Amino acid sequence: MSSQIGVGSSRAGDGLGAVGAPGNPRPGPHRHRGPRRRPSRDSSQPSRPTRRAGDGPSHRRPSDRRPSDRRRGRGRPGPRRPTQQRPGRGDRRRRLTLLGTLAAAVAALFSLLATPSATPTLAPGAPAETTQPPTGGAIDSRRQSQSDEELARYWTPARLVNAIDANVLTRTTGGESVGTGMPAGTAPGVGLTAGAPLAALEREPLADDVVTPYAGGGAAVRLDGALFTTINGSDYACSGSVVDSPGHDLVMTAGHCLHSGGLSGSFATNVIFIPGYSNGSAPYGVWHASQLTVTAGWGYQRSFDEDAGFATFRPVGGRNLQDVVGGAFPIAFTNGTTAGSLAGPQTVLGYPKLPPFDGATLMTCTGTTTPDPRGGHSLGLPCPMTAGASGGAWLSGFHNGTGTLDAVVSYAYSSDPNTIYGTSFGPSIRQLYQHAIQL
């Protein structure tokens, strides 16, 4: 911040006093300078003060005489010595300001050379990935630039039906991929390395009533919904839930539904949420996202332990999302990074889309959780939901259509399609939530 320096008036010099007349030279072979006469003082002018003993230090006034013509030859005045004007205070200030600016610039240059560069701000398409994911923190998208009119034109009924089922398919343990069975190359921003649809994996079906259409009523039919996005030019379908927030505008989902993961990944665009989605209907309207945020662990390195994200949504008709749907799920967080298991049975809600499901109906299953046997902090639950359920709610204490959100659907292993794994809410997810409610 530049400082404003006060500028005082600067004069070139005071007015000059009266000029005394030199004496006339006496005639003769030699030129003699006549006696110098003191100029008669005008009685109307104040007399010059005389310094007396005991007075303070004298302050010399500027000379009241011009340089006299000290030589007169042949009736012409001799050459005058040019007078030099002392620079004003304004000139000195300008020079000092310039010197100060140059000194500051040199100091800043040396500071940059001596200080290691900070972590760059993330942007879509950044070329490199970090070797270790940071602890905690969040990565935000830019403000969603699509207008309400553009989104309404983009998401036709045909696009909603044909949206690909968003999945995470690149976690490999012992040569086995994680995912819920998307064809190769169709995951958002990443490809399936051992890919075949789940229908081709000859999975052993569980009992017919393990995954059923949700028919319990209550808040769940309003607070859960289908989430549609575009990542790298392809349209995707996920699940999401309205969560309690001061702004009444927040939806929680899986991180991979909003960002393809890693520094080279991209945030989603064309993000819409349809609470209560059922067979193509939107009983509580279509909501358009304003901003997205995911954990730094997911956004830097695709850490499945931090596969979580939030989206804020614009008001519709002057009303916020939470007010229109009539409530929100509360969120519970664990104290440690390894929960081991979540207390009591968990109820899962989502919109699975691959066969035998169609993504048009809210489905549910219930079970108890166990740790992922391959490591990490995610938790497994016996529930064969397919792609499209990503980001779906895991609820504890579920009763009469409501419960507490404590995890979201994240992934499944191709060798064990009957178990889905969820990201439980440890400290990093708590930090993400606290960040999201301030967006």
Automatic annotation (TrEMBL):
The keyword Phosphoprotein does not apply. Residues 1-94, 120-150 are annotated as: Disordered. Keywords: Membrane, Signal, Transmembrane, Transmembrane helix. It comes from the Bacteria. GO terms for molecular function: serine-type endopeptidase activity. Residues 28-39, 59-79 have a biased composition (Basic residues). The chain crosses the membrane at residues 96-114. One of its GO terms (biological process) is proteolysis. Residues 140-150 have a biased composition (Basic and acidic residues). InterPro entries: Glutamyl_endopeptidase, Peptidase_S1_PA, Peptidase_S1_PA_chymotrypsin, TRYPSIN_HIS. This is Signal peptide-containing protein. It comes from Pseudofrankia inefficax (strain DSM 45817 / CECT 9037 / DDB 130130 / EuI1c).
